[in-house]
C-alpha cells in the first residue's frame, strides 16, 4: 500500500490501495488527507446530531451514517473502480437502501452534514458544496461550531443549492427531507 500522489488524479481503485490507518477523501480525482482527528467539540456536535436523527429514524426507511463512511459519487454510470469522488461526510442520511452496499453508499445521500473546522472549511464550503450539488444531494448542512450556527441549503427546481435557512443556538431546524422532524440546536450546541 502506498500513499497517494497529491498532484495526480486518482480513482476509487487507487483509493482502495491506500493505507487503512489514514483517512482520505477523493474529490474530482484529487486526494485530501483528513488528519488530524476531529476536535472534542466536533465529536460532541456529531454525536448529538446522530442521536437526534437515529431516534427519529428508528424503524423507518431512511438511515443515518457517520464518518468514517465512504460515499462514492459517480458522474454517470461508471464502475466503482473508475469513480473519482469518494467522500466521508460527518453525517449522511440515506433513504434509498439500494444505494447501500458493503463499501458504503454509491450515489447521492438525501442529506449530508459537514461540521466545519479551520482545516476543512474551504473544502466543505467550496469543493464539496459543488460536488454535492452536482450529485443531487437534496439537502446540505454546514455546521459552524465556534459560532453555534448551521447554514442549510436545499436543491431548487433547477438542481442548484438555495439557502433555506441560517439557524443558531437554541433554534430548531425543520429537516427538509423529513418534514416532521425538528433538530434541537439547544442540544446540538450544548456545552454540558
TrEMBL record:
<protein>
    <recommendedName>
        <fullName>Putative restriction endonuclease domain-containing protein</fullName>
    </recommendedName>
</protein>
<dbReference type="InterPro" id="IPR008538">
    <property type="entry name" value="Uma2"/>
</dbReference>
<feature type="domain" description="Putative restriction endonuclease">
    <location>
        <begin position="13"/>
        <end position="175"/>
    </location>
</feature>
<dbReference type="Pfam" id="PF05685">
    <property type="entry name" value="Uma2"/>
</dbReference>
<dbReference type="InterPro" id="IPR011335">
    <property type="entry name" value="Restrct_endonuc-II-like"/>
</dbReference>
<dbReference type="InterPro" id="IPR012296">
    <property type="entry name" value="Nuclease_put_TT1808"/>
</dbReference>
Amino acid at each position: 500500500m502506498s500513499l497517494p500522489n497529491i498532484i495526480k488524479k486518482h480513482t476509487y481503485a487507487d483509493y482502495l490501495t491506500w493505507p487503512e490507518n489514514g483517512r482520505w477523501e477523493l474529490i474530482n480525482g484529487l486526494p485530501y488527507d483528513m488528519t488530524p482527528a476531529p476536535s472534542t467539540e466536533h465529536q460532541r456536535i456529531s454525536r448529538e446530531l446522530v442521536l437526534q436523527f437515529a431516534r427519529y429514524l428508528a424503524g423507518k426507511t431512511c438511515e443515518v451514517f457517520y464518518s468514517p463512511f465512504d460515499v462514492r459519487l459517480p458522474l454517470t454510470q461508471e464502475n466503482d473502480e473508475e469513480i473519482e469522488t469518494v467522500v466521508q461526510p460527518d453525517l449522511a442520511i440515506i433513504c434509498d437502501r439500494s444505494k447501500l452496499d458493503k463499501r458504503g453508499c454509491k450515489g447521492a445521500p438525501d442529506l449530508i452534514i459537514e461540521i466545519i473546522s479551520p482545516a476543512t472549511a474551504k473544502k466543505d464550503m467550496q469543493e464539496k458544496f459543488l460536488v454535492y450539488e452536482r450529485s443531487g444531494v437534496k439537502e446540505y448542512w454546514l455546521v459552524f461550531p465556534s459560532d453555534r450556527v448551521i447554514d442549510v441549503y436545499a436543491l431548487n427546481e433547477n438542481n442548484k443549492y438555495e439557502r433555506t435557512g441560517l439557524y443558531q443556538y437554541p433554534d430548531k431546524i425543520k429537516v427538509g427531507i423529513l418534514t416532521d422532524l425538528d433538530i434541537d440546536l439547544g442540544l446540538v450546541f450544548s456545552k454540558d
